[in-house]
From TrEMBL:
<feature type="transmembrane region" description="Helical">
    <location>
        <begin position="223"/>
        <end position="243"/>
    </location>
</feature>
<feature type="transmembrane region" description="Helical">
    <location>
        <begin position="70"/>
        <end position="91"/>
    </location>
</feature>
<feature type="transmembrane region" description="Helical">
    <location>
        <begin position="43"/>
        <end position="64"/>
    </location>
</feature>
<dbReference type="Pfam" id="PF24374">
    <property type="entry name" value="DUF7530"/>
</dbReference>
<protein>
    <submittedName>
        <fullName>Uncharacterized protein</fullName>
    </submittedName>
</protein>
<feature type="transmembrane region" description="Helical">
    <location>
        <begin position="112"/>
        <end position="131"/>
    </location>
</feature>
<keyword id="KW-1133">Transmembrane helix</keyword>
<keyword id="KW-0472">Membrane</keyword>
<dbReference type="InterPro" id="IPR055952">
    <property type="entry name" value="DUF7530"/>
</dbReference>
<feature type="transmembrane region" description="Helical">
    <location>
        <begin position="198"/>
        <end position="217"/>
    </location>
</feature>
<feature type="transmembrane region" description="Helical">
    <location>
        <begin position="151"/>
        <end position="169"/>
    </location>
</feature>
<keyword id="KW-0812">Transmembrane</keyword>
Amino acid sequence: MSRTNRMEQTNPADGMSQAERGPYQWTYESIVDAIPGVTLPDWLALTVQFVLFEGLLLLLAWRYDLWGGFLAGTAAVVVATAGSALMLAIARRIRTLTTPRVYRKLLFGSSIEVVLGLLSYVGLVTYLFVYNPRQGGTSLLESVLGTEPPIPAVFLTLLVLWDVCYRIGTAWWTSVTGFWVAVRHPTDSETRARLREVDALVIGFSLLQLVLVPFVWGYDLLVFALVGHVVAVLFVSGGAVFVRTRG
């Protein structure tokens, strides 16, 4: 049985093995595969991610009476977990298509999504701990965690926020590489149609992050950053769809 046939018969719920993913993987996929002797199907890895973070969130909200920020934390956990699911869905579709090797290397093997996520995260931390407190009034961190935030709650908050920022970086990098391959590497009509489905997933991936806007409403710089990111992805991935439709 050819490698292509094996990939086509893979149960989407079970995902792909490390061998089927090939030499290039997103950092998230590498982490999932990093536990020696343990291979988790996609649905179980996603369930573990959600239950672990939501369980810790619930525990800390109960322990320190932080119920005022519980809904915002849950929204962030949902965005991060759903982002993981969409990342896996996007990767699975791309790997079953005949695309240039350089595209897969750029998308999965360059780790640029980590760099973009890190830049987003550093900007967010700078905003939370330096810029926002200097503006006067109640800071965002204070509104979520109280005036004397418990250290474990701060730790979990920053960890979940990193998860969200990583998903933002991934959405942007997937959008940019999708537009690049649409312009530089024309494909057959069937592959173009499948890649348009990927573009639609990327757009959905970014729109998902708008769930966070109500929780940062009133903090104009964060609202601008979130909405601006989504608009940029819509523009770039929409451009890729246009190029593939015209091609």
